[in-house]
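Q: Protein A?
A:
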Amino acid sequence: MSQKVVTGVDGREWIVSLKIMWTDKSEGFEHEKEGGRRAVIGIIVVLGLLVFAQVAWAFQVPAVETPWWVLLILAAIVLFFPVRWALRRPRRLRVEGGRWPDDDDGGRAEEWSGFVRGRTESRAEFKQAIKTLQKRGTPARANSPLQPQ
């Protein structure tokens, strides 16, 4: 979780945070448009058959040595999907605060939040929210995923 306290151009303090969401139960979030469970099961079966064939080949023909690049390709294929899944998890971008420094009446602070998919995109939105607060005093901008709560 990344968190940063930012002072806006108008003197208000905001807390900008970014948190990874391990469950995809976010409201109104567009899910990935991929093949679904059957495609995942098919990929796992094919990868299992490839690994089984490699191991069986090594035991059947002990005189033939498996090239290192074949093992490297198999490892890359097996690790590609879990690494992609972890990097493409949605992140929740949240901006809260916005009270005036002399506001002691207990009024409700502003809260903005939105979801961004992917590590690179979420870090860019995190930095953009900070820049927008410092230049305009509000996290709102035209293409921002942030919505007032």
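Q: Protein B?
A:
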Amino acid sequence: MTLDEIAALVQKGVSHAGFSDSLQFDCGDAGVVRIVDGAVSLEAGDAECTLKMSLDNLAKLITGKLNPMTAVMMGKIKVSGNPAVAMKLKDLL
């Protein structure tokens, strides 16, 4: 799954859930997906919470094949910033 495909799926979730916080998925050299003010972009920037993970793990997370809490505990996802924003992620998926 490409970053563009992931961004499209995230946008659907954001539109449906009315997510108003800022959150960034950082996949290193593969790029970023950032949510700010209900809009999804592929440009890095400031966010209340950043989740660092591989592109493969992001695809699994978005499609429901990776449990976010388990992934954090296993070190597959690293959270920086406000973890309360990361907890709202379940509303998007």
